[in-house]
Amino acid sequence: MTVDEAAEGQRVDNFLIRHLRGVPKSHIYRLLRSGQVRVNGGRIRAHYRLRPGDRLRVPPVRVATQPLSHGPPPRLVDRLTAAILQEDADFIVLDKPCGVAVHGGTGNPWGVIETLRAAWPGSSRLTLAHRLDRDTSGCLVLARRRRALLGFQDALRAGTVTKEYLVLLHGRLERRRRVEVPLVRQAGAMRAGVGGKPARTEFEIVQSLPDATLVRARLHTGRMHQIRVHAAHLGHPVLGDEKYGDFAANRAWRRRGLRRIFLHAARIAFRFEGRGVEAEASLPPELDAVLSQAQVAS
Q: Domain 74-155 sits in which CATH superfamily?
């Protein structure tokens, strides 16, 4: 296929995930790694950004997808519509609920982006400007126009997007900490290590509890699982984190009502074409209740 202007600047992996709906992401990345996907006759990596006029060759793949003609679940549409924090001609900022993926998969085709595109007439060009993990709640930016998407991505690369998270860490953090440790992808996860991609996170204490610390984490880079890995590197993993966390602490806090990771994108701010865009998402009720109970117990 030939890439048009609508896909300009989009990563080839994200382009394929959108266009090969029903194909597992693992298979798409396997095609990229093995060189079966070609751009202008040459091999490319997953992070290659498409340009208008690029000739994209994709091998035959079997698409096993659930029919989408029935439309998204009405309850999910209502839930996402009610979660809109602000919107204009360029962006929508959503308070994404925990447990809702930003992209649909083979088991559930209705992620945030598929649901809103299907539910709103004329929203076929709506695009995720960045991502949040399924179990992370909070501020998620969607772009309504290609120009807005590229502007947000430029701001991300320039480091001018402010992203703040409320996070409950295991143990007592005694002072504000800055972590500047590279992150390395290894066997489907991330770890702190030499030779990886630069990553910087600041942890500012909001409230100290006897056995935990509520912090405001500020991201200065946007690596996968960055807050979770940097928190674990400090020796104070995020509570409820089943991949990088302290499993004994997670079990104890589960008995205290924490049934998800305590990681919430509380604020995002950036500038686009001379104006400021800013949104804040309050702590979800289930996390607020856990925190209130911990305060009473202390």
A: Pseudouridine synthase (3.30.2350.10)
